[in-house]
UniProtKB/TrEMBL annotation:
Enzyme nomenclature, EC number: 3.5.1.99
Active-site feature positions: 121 (charge relay system), 196 (charge relay system), 220 (acyl-ester intermediate)
Protein name: Fatty-acid amide hydrolase 1
Main EC class the enzyme belongs to: hydrolase
Similarity remark: Belongs to the amidase family.
GO process annotations (BP): fatty acid catabolic process
One MF annotation (Gene Ontology) recorded for this entry: fatty acid amide hydrolase activity
InterPro entries linked: Amidase_CS, Amidase_dom, AS_sf, Endocannabinoid_amidase
Domain Amidase: 73-534
Binding site for substrate: 170, 196, 217-220
Length: 543
């Protein structure tokens, strides 16, 4: 008992030190932003913060806007949003050194993101800083070098300036851990900002960052973007380098993880991908296919043939989700595009047998090991209990609740290989259905509006709309298209769900009280067709 008490005390000490560092970071941000305002009282911060990224980069590159004006405007705004939402874990003090160097760069040498302050998710390595994943054991273990994505951003002139909060382990679409606490949605503090790139969603959604970098293994870019009313794209898994990016479940190959940007608008995502898909990335990571951004595909005005569906028949969409798809479909048709119904089948089988089973084919043991010595299992209580339960009990429970329970079992190597083959076959079958309809892209629902804080832990099954495209490894982006209305809220009274079980009853509670909150749609393309996906997203955004 004494030994356990001492260990616990040592852990609390590490947490306290990390929280003090976080507090010092915010104090430092306040000091530098205030000093700049005092020295430059005539700088119009509001107009700088209102500039869209393409316009901002143009002004920075042609010299009409000094990089320090932009940098300190965003430091000040980021501090405000961090104070309101608890989204920032650390200020990267070397960003000020980088800023001083940027002022010396000649016009002809300025990269596509010259002088742009960029926020970085906790799990993306920045040299000299922790990538904690919300685990105490990862504190005081600074990264030896920048991840490839951060290196390329810097070579393109961007200035990474803060790291942002994540849920413990990243396997959650809420945003809370024992070290840094709960991050709140900037639009409504009682709501989650989504996760696992939740700090990014809150900061970009609140206007404290103009461009953020996050990751996605089940919706971790798309949930925060949708919940906070911004845009994001999850590319094909290997379109952007994942070197130097920490993963929640290391080694699994069933569900493709990806790194991608979050921003206020689609054109900002495009600019980010233009900058990242450069020779710098291809030389730093030779496992990434050397595919530069295809301007011809993105700028095409050819009418699109678009598949669509309103539900996956597994997670019943909220009234606002269904309306978002219907209204977007109508606008696209009026603009001259062709909309074709697409029928989804067996999504429950895909989620449980491909995604959950594929990610935790070792019975969840390697994932559970990550929590060894941690004081809190965060939102993973049920998962831990299931992972340790005997097989007969899992089978019994799977008849009572959804087959989530049965999926977390130990599988042999032979069974895992068979599973990978099955996923491959499913992918080709899905593409076959897509091509039979001669589709360019797909319009899909996106879970929304933002759930109340704490609800994602109870509703892991609601990842069905997003995780499908990690299993398929298709590029998928989100664009906010509407706000929840009083009528939507009224319709929610008759929401029952497809199973009318505890999960469905909990989901309707999580949706309630959301009038005025944003709702997005998901835009999807075939693998390696990010430019077409973005072209479609831009069309949806414009309409």
């Amino acid at each position: 008992l004494l030994l356990r008490w001492r260990r616990r005390r040592a852990l609390w000490r590490k947490v306290a030190e990390a929280q003090e560092r976080q507090e010092r970071s915010l104090v430092r941000m306040d000091a530098v932003a205030r000093r700049f305002r005092e020295q430059h009282p005539s700088v119009d911060v509001v107009s700088i913060l209102s500039l869209p990224l393409p316009e901002l980069t143009k002004k920075l590159r042609d010299g009409s806007l000094p990089p320090d004006h932009v940098f300190y405007a965003y430091v000040g705004k980021a501090l405000q949003i961090a104070t309101e939402t608890n989204c920032i874990t650390e200020f990267l003090q070397e960003s000020e050194t980088q800023l001083r160097k940027a002022k010396l760069v000649g016009k002809e040498e300025r990269g596509l993101l010259y002088g742009v302050p960029v926020s970085i998710k906790d799990s993306v390595d920045c040299q000299g800083h922790d990538s904690t994943l919300g685990f105490i054991k990862n504190l005081n273990k600074p990264a030896a070098e920048d991840s490839v994505v951060v290196q390329v951003l810097k070579r393109q002139g961007a200035i990474p300036f803060v790291k942002t909060n994540v849920p413990q382990s990243l396997i959650s679409y809420d945003c809370k851990n024992l070290i840094f606490g709960q991050t709140r949605n900037p639009l409504l503090y009682t709501r989650t900002p989504g996760g696992s790139s939740g700090g990014e969603g809150a900061l970009v959604g609140g206007g404290g960052s103009i461009l953020g970098i996050g990751t996605d293994v089940g919706g971790s870019l798309r949930f925060p973007a949708a919940f906070c009313g911004i845009c994001a794209i999850k590319p094909t898994g290997n379109r952007l380098s994942k070197r130097g990016i920490m993963s929640g479940v290391v080694g699994q190959k069933a569900v493709a993880a990806a790194v991608g940007p979050l921003a206020k608008d689609v054109e900002s995502l495009v600019l980010c991908l233009r900058a990242l898909l450069s020779e710098d990335m291809f030389s730093l990571d030779s496992t990434v296919p050397p595919l530069p951004f295809n301007e011809e595909v993105y700028s095409s005005t050819k009418p699109l043939r678009i598949g669509y569906y309103e539900t996956d028949f597994f997670t019943m969409p909220s009234p606002a989700m269904r309306r978002a798809v219907r209204e977007t479909k109508q606008l696209l048709e009026e603009a001259g595009h062709t909309l074709v119904p697409f029928e989804l089948t067996n999504v429950d089988y895909v989620i449980f047998n491909y995604c959950v089973r594929g990610m935790f084919a070792d019975g969840g043991s390697s994932f559970v090991r990550k929590f060894k010595g941690e004081m809190e299992k965060s939102s993973m209580g049920m998962f831990f209990w299931v992972a340790k339960a005997p097989h007969w009990l899992k089978t019994l429970l799977s008849w009572i609740v959804k087959p989530f329970v049965r999926s977390i079992s130990f599988y042999t190597v032979d069974e895992v290989w068979s599973l990978h083959r099955e996923i491959e076959d499913f992918c080709h079958q899905f593409i076959g259905q897509w091509k039979k309809l001669n589709l360019d892209v797909m319009l899909c629902p996106m879970l929304g509006p933002a759930l109340g804080i704490g609800y994602p832990a109870k509703l892991s099954v609601a990842v069905s709309y997003t995780m499908l495209y990690n299993a398929l490894d298709f590029p998928a982006g989100v664009v906010p298209v509407t706000l929840v209305t009083d009528e939507d809220e009224e319709e929610l009274r008759s929401y029952k769900g497809y199973y009318q079980d505890w999960w469905d009853r909990t989901l309707v509670k999580a949706f309630r009280g959301s009038v005025g909150m944003p709702v997005a749609v998901q835009c999807v393309a075939l693998p390696w067709q990010e430019e077409l996906c973005l072209r479609f997203m831009k069309e949806v955004e414009t309409l």
